[in-house]
Amino acid sequence: MSGPTGKDLCHAAQRRLEAAGIADGYRDASLLFMHALRQMRGEAIKDHHRAQYLAAVVSPELEAVYQRMIDARAARQPVSQITGSRAFWEHEFIVTRDTLDPRPETETLVEEALKLPWGSVLDLGTGTGAILISLLAARPGSVGTGTDISEAALDVARRNAHLIGVTARLAVSDWFSTVNGRFDLIVSNPPYIALDEMAGLAPEVGKWEPRRALTDGADGLSAYRVIAGRAAEHLTPHGHVLVEIGHKQGEAVATIFRSHGAETRCFADLDGRDRVILARF
To answer: pLDDT class for 68, splitting at 50, 70, 90?
Structure first.
Protein backbone atom coordinates (compact mmCIF):
# COMPACT_ATOMS: atom_id res chain seq x y z
CA MET A 1 0.00 0.00 0.00
CA SER A 2 1.40 3.39 -1.00
CA GLY A 3 0.36 6.84 0.01
CA PRO A 4 1.21 9.59 2.48
CA THR A 5 2.33 8.79 5.99
CA GLY A 6 0.96 10.52 9.04
CA LYS A 7 4.08 12.68 9.15
CA ASP A 8 3.59 13.65 5.48
CA LEU A 9 0.05 14.76 6.22
CA CYS A 10 1.09 16.71 9.32
CA HIS A 11 3.80 18.62 7.44
CA ALA A 12 1.40 19.46 4.62
CA ALA A 13 -1.18 20.58 7.18
CA GLN A 14 1.46 22.65 8.96
CA ARG A 15 2.16 24.60 5.77
CA ARG A 16 -1.53 25.19 5.20
CA LEU A 17 -2.23 26.29 8.77
CA GLU A 18 0.73 28.66 8.89
CA ALA A 19 -0.38 30.17 5.57
CA ALA A 20 -3.75 30.77 7.28
CA GLY A 21 -2.02 32.78 10.01
CA ILE A 22 -1.66 30.11 12.71
CA ALA A 23 1.73 30.50 14.39
CA ASP A 24 2.50 26.96 15.57
CA GLY A 25 1.03 25.02 12.69
CA TYR A 26 2.81 21.73 13.37
CA ARG A 27 1.58 21.56 16.96
CA ASP A 28 -2.05 21.90 15.86
CA ALA A 29 -1.55 19.63 12.86
CA SER A 30 -0.11 16.82 15.00
CA LEU A 31 -2.74 17.24 17.75
CA LEU A 32 -5.51 16.96 15.18
CA PHE A 33 -3.87 13.98 13.49
CA MET A 34 -3.82 12.08 16.77
CA HIS A 35 -7.42 13.08 17.41
CA ALA A 36 -8.46 11.84 13.96
CA LEU A 37 -6.61 8.59 14.58
CA ARG A 38 -8.28 8.20 17.96
CA GLN A 39 -11.70 8.75 16.32
CA MET A 40 -11.01 6.14 13.66
CA ARG A 41 -9.66 3.55 16.12
CA GLY A 42 -12.20 4.25 18.85
CA GLU A 43 -9.52 4.35 21.53
CA ALA A 44 -6.85 6.63 22.92
CA ILE A 45 -3.37 6.43 21.42
CA LYS A 46 -0.56 5.84 23.89
CA ASP A 47 2.24 8.41 23.76
CA HIS A 48 4.93 5.84 23.03
CA HIS A 49 2.97 4.67 19.95
CA ARG A 50 2.77 8.11 18.32
CA ALA A 51 5.99 7.78 16.29
CA GLN A 52 4.75 4.45 14.94
CA TYR A 53 1.50 5.93 13.67
CA LEU A 54 3.18 9.01 12.23
CA ALA A 55 5.55 6.80 10.24
CA ALA A 56 2.78 4.53 8.92
CA VAL A 57 0.96 5.00 5.61
CA VAL A 58 -2.46 6.56 6.24
CA SER A 59 -5.69 5.00 4.96
CA PRO A 60 -7.89 7.10 2.65
CA GLU A 61 -10.60 7.07 5.34
CA LEU A 62 -8.30 8.48 8.00
CA GLU A 63 -6.93 11.06 5.57
CA ALA A 64 -10.46 12.26 4.78
CA VAL A 65 -11.34 12.63 8.47
CA TYR A 66 -8.08 14.46 9.12
CA GLN A 67 -8.50 16.83 6.18
CA ARG A 68 -11.94 17.88 7.43
CA MET A 69 -10.35 18.79 10.76
CA ILE A 70 -7.59 20.76 9.02
CA ASP A 71 -10.23 22.55 6.93
CA ALA A 72 -11.91 23.65 10.15
CA ARG A 73 -8.64 24.75 11.76
CA ALA A 74 -7.61 26.67 8.64
CA ALA A 75 -10.91 28.53 9.02
CA ARG A 76 -9.56 29.42 12.49
CA GLN A 77 -11.95 27.23 14.47
CA PRO A 78 -10.26 26.55 17.84
CA VAL A 79 -8.67 23.13 18.29
CA SER A 80 -10.81 22.57 21.40
CA GLN A 81 -14.02 22.96 19.39
CA ILE A 82 -12.76 20.58 16.72
CA THR A 83 -11.75 17.94 19.25
CA GLY A 84 -14.68 18.75 21.54
CA SER A 85 -12.68 19.03 24.76
CA ARG A 86 -10.27 21.18 26.73
CA ALA A 87 -8.10 20.43 29.76
CA PHE A 88 -8.76 22.75 32.71
CA TRP A 89 -7.48 22.46 36.28
CA GLU A 90 -7.61 18.69 36.94
CA HIS A 91 -10.17 17.54 34.34
CA GLU A 92 -11.12 17.42 30.67
CA PHE A 93 -14.20 19.47 29.81
CA ILE A 94 -16.55 19.16 26.86
CA VAL A 95 -16.41 22.33 24.73
CA THR A 96 -18.85 23.45 22.03
CA ARG A 97 -19.59 26.64 20.11
CA ASP A 98 -22.18 27.42 22.79
CA THR A 99 -19.52 27.94 25.46
CA LEU A 100 -16.34 29.84 26.09
CA ASP A 101 -13.20 27.77 25.84
CA PRO A 102 -11.87 27.39 29.43
CA ARG A 103 -8.52 29.18 29.56
CA PRO A 104 -5.43 28.64 31.74
CA GLU A 105 -5.68 32.12 33.26
CA THR A 106 -9.10 31.25 34.69
CA GLU A 107 -7.38 28.63 36.84
CA THR A 108 -6.17 31.60 38.91
CA LEU A 109 -9.75 32.05 40.13
CA VAL A 110 -10.06 28.36 41.03
CA GLU A 111 -6.74 28.43 42.87
CA GLU A 112 -7.73 31.46 44.96
CA ALA A 113 -11.20 30.05 45.66
CA LEU A 114 -9.73 26.87 47.10
CA LYS A 115 -7.77 28.95 49.62
CA LEU A 116 -11.03 30.34 51.07
CA PRO A 117 -13.39 28.76 53.62
CA TRP A 118 -16.67 27.84 51.93
CA GLY A 119 -19.13 24.99 51.70
CA SER A 120 -21.53 26.43 49.13
CA VAL A 121 -20.79 28.22 45.87
CA LEU A 122 -22.74 30.08 43.18
CA ASP A 123 -21.20 30.36 39.70
CA LEU A 124 -22.79 33.12 37.61
CA GLY A 125 -22.44 32.56 33.85
CA THR A 126 -21.14 29.03 34.28
CA GLY A 127 -20.68 28.13 30.58
CA THR A 128 -18.97 24.73 30.43
CA GLY A 129 -19.19 24.57 34.23
CA ALA A 130 -15.38 24.47 34.38
CA ILE A 131 -15.05 26.74 37.41
CA LEU A 132 -17.97 25.32 39.38
CA ILE A 133 -17.22 21.66 38.66
CA SER A 134 -13.51 22.09 39.39
CA LEU A 135 -14.34 23.64 42.76
CA LEU A 136 -16.91 21.03 43.75
CA ALA A 137 -14.66 18.16 42.66
CA ALA A 138 -11.80 19.56 44.73
CA ARG A 139 -13.93 20.04 47.85
CA PRO A 140 -16.03 16.91 48.56
CA GLY A 141 -19.16 17.63 50.55
CA SER A 142 -19.58 21.12 49.15
CA VAL A 143 -22.69 22.14 47.21
CA GLY A 144 -22.99 24.43 44.23
CA THR A 145 -25.30 26.16 41.78
CA GLY A 146 -24.39 27.30 38.29
CA THR A 147 -26.45 29.72 36.24
CA ASP A 148 -26.28 30.84 32.64
CA ILE A 149 -28.52 32.77 30.29
CA SER A 150 -27.90 30.06 27.66
CA GLU A 151 -29.75 26.76 27.95
CA ALA A 152 -27.36 25.29 25.39
CA ALA A 153 -24.39 26.17 27.60
CA LEU A 154 -26.13 24.63 30.60
CA ASP A 155 -26.59 21.40 28.64
CA VAL A 156 -22.81 21.31 28.18
CA ALA A 157 -22.27 21.98 31.89
CA ARG A 158 -24.65 19.14 32.78
CA ARG A 159 -22.71 16.75 30.57
CA ASN A 160 -19.45 17.83 32.14
CA ALA A 161 -20.80 17.44 35.66
CA HIS A 162 -21.99 13.93 34.84
CA LEU A 163 -18.71 12.88 33.23
CA ILE A 164 -16.61 14.24 36.10
CA GLY A 165 -18.94 12.85 38.75
CA VAL A 166 -20.06 16.10 40.36
CA THR A 167 -23.57 16.99 41.47
CA ALA A 168 -24.54 20.62 40.87
CA ARG A 169 -27.76 22.56 40.43
CA LEU A 170 -27.77 24.20 37.00
CA ALA A 171 -30.43 26.73 36.05
CA VAL A 172 -31.21 29.41 33.49
CA SER A 173 -30.79 32.86 35.00
CA ASP A 174 -29.89 36.37 33.89
CA TRP A 175 -27.31 36.90 36.63
CA PHE A 176 -29.30 36.82 39.90
CA SER A 177 -32.78 36.88 38.32
CA THR A 178 -33.77 33.34 39.37
CA VAL A 179 -31.27 32.82 42.19
CA ASN A 180 -32.61 32.12 45.67
CA GLY A 181 -30.75 31.63 48.91
CA ARG A 182 -27.30 32.57 50.14
CA PHE A 183 -23.85 31.17 49.41
CA ASP A 184 -20.47 31.24 51.09
CA LEU A 185 -18.81 32.03 47.77
CA ILE A 186 -19.93 33.66 44.53
CA VAL A 187 -17.70 33.24 41.47
CA SER A 188 -17.97 34.47 37.90
CA ASN A 189 -16.05 34.82 34.66
CA PRO A 190 -18.42 37.31 33.03
CA PRO A 191 -18.29 38.94 29.57
CA TYR A 192 -15.71 41.66 30.12
CA ILE A 193 -14.49 42.61 26.66
CA ALA A 194 -15.58 46.13 25.70
CA LEU A 195 -17.49 46.45 22.43
CA ASP A 196 -14.78 48.59 20.86
CA GLU A 197 -12.22 45.84 21.59
CA MET A 198 -14.10 43.07 19.80
CA ALA A 199 -12.66 43.83 16.36
CA GLY A 200 -9.15 43.23 17.69
CA LEU A 201 -9.80 39.69 18.93
CA ALA A 202 -8.15 36.70 17.30
CA PRO A 203 -10.49 34.93 14.85
CA GLU A 204 -10.52 31.85 17.11
CA VAL A 205 -12.26 33.99 19.71
CA GLY A 206 -14.23 36.65 17.88
CA LYS A 207 -15.49 34.41 15.08
CA TRP A 208 -16.10 31.13 16.92
CA GLU A 209 -16.95 31.77 20.57
CA PRO A 210 -20.40 32.97 21.71
CA ARG A 211 -20.52 36.75 21.44
CA ARG A 212 -22.66 37.36 24.51
CA ALA A 213 -20.17 35.39 26.62
CA LEU A 214 -17.40 37.70 25.44
CA THR A 215 -18.86 41.22 25.54
CA ASP A 216 -21.64 43.14 27.25
CA GLY A 217 -21.97 45.28 24.13
CA ALA A 218 -20.78 48.29 26.12
CA ASP A 219 -17.73 49.10 28.25
CA GLY A 220 -17.05 45.56 29.50
CA LEU A 221 -18.01 46.42 33.08
CA SER A 222 -21.78 45.90 33.07
CA ALA A 223 -21.71 42.46 34.68
CA TYR A 224 -19.51 43.66 37.53
CA ARG A 225 -22.00 46.42 38.33
CA VAL A 226 -24.80 43.86 38.58
CA ILE A 227 -22.77 41.37 40.61
CA ALA A 228 -21.42 44.01 43.00
CA GLY A 229 -24.85 45.56 43.42
CA ARG A 230 -26.61 42.35 44.42
CA ALA A 231 -23.93 40.03 45.78
CA ALA A 232 -24.54 40.98 49.43
CA GLU A 233 -28.15 39.75 49.13
CA HIS A 234 -26.89 36.28 48.26
CA LEU A 235 -23.86 35.91 50.52
CA THR A 236 -23.72 34.29 53.93
CA PRO A 237 -21.98 36.30 56.68
CA HIS A 238 -18.26 36.59 55.91
CA GLY A 239 -18.85 35.30 52.37
CA HIS A 240 -16.65 36.18 49.41
CA VAL A 241 -16.93 37.06 45.72
CA LEU A 242 -14.26 36.14 43.16
CA VAL A 243 -14.54 37.45 39.59
CA GLU A 244 -12.23 37.14 36.63
CA ILE A 245 -11.33 40.43 34.94
CA GLY A 246 -9.56 41.72 31.87
CA HIS A 247 -5.92 42.47 32.63
CA LYS A 248 -6.48 46.25 32.42
CA GLN A 249 -9.66 46.30 34.52
CA GLY A 250 -8.28 45.75 38.01
CA GLU A 251 -8.80 49.24 39.41
CA ALA A 252 -12.10 49.81 37.61
CA VAL A 253 -13.66 46.57 38.91
CA ALA A 254 -12.27 47.05 42.41
CA THR A 255 -13.78 50.55 42.46
CA ILE A 256 -17.19 49.15 41.48
CA PHE A 257 -17.13 46.66 44.36
CA ARG A 258 -15.82 49.22 46.84
CA SER A 259 -18.65 51.57 45.90
CA HIS A 260 -21.02 48.90 47.24
CA GLY A 261 -19.14 48.59 50.52
CA ALA A 262 -16.77 45.73 49.75
CA GLU A 263 -13.14 45.32 50.66
CA THR A 264 -11.16 44.17 47.63
CA ARG A 265 -7.93 42.50 46.65
CA CYS A 266 -6.49 41.80 43.20
CA PHE A 267 -4.65 38.63 42.16
CA ALA A 268 -2.38 38.22 39.13
CA ASP A 269 -2.25 35.24 36.77
CA LEU A 270 0.91 33.28 35.98
CA ASP A 271 1.91 35.93 33.43
CA GLY A 272 1.80 38.61 36.11
CA ARG A 273 -1.34 40.30 34.76
CA ASP A 274 -4.27 41.38 36.93
CA ARG A 275 -6.79 38.55 36.59
CA VAL A 276 -9.07 38.11 39.63
CA ILE A 277 -10.78 40.47 42.06
CA LEU A 278 -11.67 39.20 45.53
CA ALA A 279 -14.44 41.14 47.28
CA ARG A 280 -15.72 40.76 50.81
CA PHE A 281 -18.77 42.66 52.03
So the answer is: very high
